[in-house]
Amino acid sequence: MELEEMQMAWSQMSQELEKQKQLTDEIILKMTQQRYKDHWNKIATPEKIGSVICYTALIFILANFEKFDTLPLQISGGLCILILAILPILSLYTIRNLQRINLTKTNYKETMEAYAKSKKDFVNFQKLNIGISFLFMLITIPVSAKLFNNEDLFANFDNKLFYALPIMLIFFSGLIWFVTRCYKGILRSSERILNEIKE
Amino acid sequence: MRNEEAFIQLIKENEGIIFKITRVYCDTLENQKDLYQDIVFQLWKGFESFRGESKASTWMYRVALNTAFTFLRKEKKKGHAVAIENLTLKYEPDDPILEERLSQMYTQIRQLNDVNKGIILLLLEGKKYEEIAEVTGFSRSKVATRISRIKEKLRQQLIKE
Lengths: 199, 161
Prior knowledge:
heterodimer, A: mainly alpha, 5 helices, elongated, B: mainly alpha, 8 helices, globular
């Protein structure tokens, strides 16, 4: 169908639509209220749960900090606290950036550009997140061994770790492979959006 | 209260615009309903700050297109629940020939990229190049170039068929 034919069909449809008004005051109000609730729930729940878990662990480590009686344990405990404090804030920050795009104030081009940019930022944050998580996983081993079993792995290296570490490395390599694959898709889609704008 | 009444009035007067945008961007009725609600919600969110610097319909097109764009990205990841059962969103033309032409038209439009979908929609709505430029954020000359490319693409689609 050529553009001129489309215009004719479109205008015929528009005229008929004018006659078929369907919305009532009640439906319009319901739509705004329902969506407000959905929006709030979508943002809040997973982030709240994640942050509560991180901060509970942080408080637990802080409350038992005196158990770390050697410098390596104190450094590990301190790093754990730092990561647990910072990660939820960073995560909330990137999500907030994605939501900050004000659909009611920007034009189409700006929305697309802002969306593509915030997606790229999100991917970069996730890459950083994986690195930090790996470090976190390593330092959690001596910290939890001390907190739950009163063992100092820095002083008495447990042979079981010879088996545990490679398993963890394999798990992390798998995770990195999977996550990188997902992010490649996100980055490709962001590039496609930016190319569409440039065309 | 007055705001609420004015908003309802605005939506009622322009419900056709929202309907047409949902049909261009979504191919299933469920997604159309969902996008419809998203657009109404976004319009409500921005209604307070809308000061009438541009025409109400221009503002509505802008918000609706922005919402459709972000909705499509979310939609690819996770489904939405249709919350309002009595939102029917049905349009059944009496003329079967028109129905056939509309379906063919939507199929062709959906093959275009997101930018061009928005531009052709505004063009079909009878908007001038300046207004399309205002809604989309592209310059007037860029809009003109894109429209001639869209025409070419539509011709190519015809040849392929």
